[in-house]
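Customer escalation, tier 2.

The customer says the design service returned an amino acid string that "doesn't look like it belongs to this structure." They asked us to rerun it and document both sides in this ticket. The original structure tokens are below, unchanged.
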């Protein structure tokens, strides 16, 4: 039997809220940090599914066997379940300032991730080639930057170093993909000039 990368990723996202609620019930942890995590990651699931419906990523339409899908990408993605497990099972008390900073980082990440994906999707429907304005004017990968901020906020709420290691693994994977993207874009006229005006990830502010 075959499935798609998109279906596997969607399954991972859909399972987030049930898993977090199950952890809260199992460890009898109905604390403010647990609900903060549930609210942030649960909302991300809803927004992801809406994005995949309205402006899907064609890369995720690749077909693969169910076994391959479970081994990759589902198993690596399951590493993100570690953050809520540690937070809830250890009944972690986080500093009060985390309740202000984590949602702020999350909101910035959501904006960059989904606005960047939407700009790319709808711009390329009109014309092919480089996208040099909007969120892509100073960084070539605002969507990856947004995703890093989103999962960085989850790691902050977890208040543990292991989720940061998981995030570092994915950041490394993102940089590999960003390198491949640069190679693909290099065939377009004007890429050398565009590359000088932008950074690969963080916006070039000068």
């Amino acid at each position: 039997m075959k499935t798609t990368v998109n279906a596997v990723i969607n399954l991972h996202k859909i399972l987030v809220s049930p898993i977090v609620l199950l952890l809260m019930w199992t460890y009898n942890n109905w604390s403010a940090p647990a609900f903060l995590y549930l609210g942030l990651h649960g909302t991300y699931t809803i927004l992801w599914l809406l994005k995949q419906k309205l402006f899907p990523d064609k890369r995720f339409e690749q077909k693969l066997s169910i076994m391959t899908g479970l081994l990759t990408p589902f198993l690596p993605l399951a590493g993100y379940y570690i953050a809520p497990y540690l937070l809830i099972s250890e009944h972690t008390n986080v500093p009060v300032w985390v309740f202000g900073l984590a949602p702020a980082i999350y909101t910035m990440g959501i904006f960059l991730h989904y606005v960047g994906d939407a700009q790319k999707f709808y711009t390329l429907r009109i014309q092919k080639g480089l996208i040099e304005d909007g969120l892509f004017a100073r960084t070539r990968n605002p969507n990856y930057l947004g995703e890093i901020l989103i999962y960085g906020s989850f790691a902050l709420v977890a208040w543990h170093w292991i989720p940061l290691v998981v995030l570092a693994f994915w950041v490394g994977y993102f940089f590999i993909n960003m390198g491949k993207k640069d190679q693909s874009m290099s065939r377009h006229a004007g890429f050398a000039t565009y590359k000088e005006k932008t950074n690969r990830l963080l916006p070039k502010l000068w």
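Tier 2 assessment: The sequence is consistent with the input. The longest strand covers residues 2-4. The mean pLDDT is 95. Sent an explanation to the customer and offered a walkthrough call.
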